[in-house]
Amino acid sequence: MNLHNYRYVVVEGPIGVGKTTLTQKIAAHIGAQVLLEQPESNPFLEKFYADQSRYALSTQMFFLFQRVNQLRSLSQTDLFDGSSAIVTDFLLDKDPIFANLTLADEELKLYQQLYDHLRPQTPTPDLVIYLQAEPDTLIERIKKRGIPMESGITLDYLKRLCESYSRFFYDYEAAPLLIVSNQHMDLSGNDGDFALLLDRIESMRGKREFFNRGE
Q: Which of 30, 122, 136, 213 sees the fewest Cβ atoms within 10 Å?
């Protein structure tokens, strides 16, 4: 199906994989609205990267409420009034990835109760694009963009995060899923790579497909 026919598209993947820039490029291409995560507004995030065990719960709770509020507003207005498609750089369903990775047992139980209560209030995407890249590549991209709060991110954390993403999307069936290797592509800056992605989306026939151009 042509990308212009989708009403709600999500671009997902671990930090540094390029999801935000691709989200913006897709939205510009189809004339859609953009809904982005706002990590800079989380007052706990920089502290979390420096001391994960101490600030994991507060960081996770802030993101959960922020994401739910963004998507709740989306479900009540833009998505169903016919005015415009929406492209986002986050999927609420992936939120527990980080919770399971960082929270202690009792904290995780509290988080899960809140998540289970809030999750039904949000819409399901028409298409999810899951970007993948090797942890070594991600850490280099993170260093290159030089965001101060990300300076505490370690390669070990990225390895565990990538593994958690892989396990999550292995079982994901809520929406059509295109798994894309962004290891050797520049989907946001290279028009040829972006055109290949658009062609791959248009040729999708099943609910789970893969796109890996290679080197």
A: 136
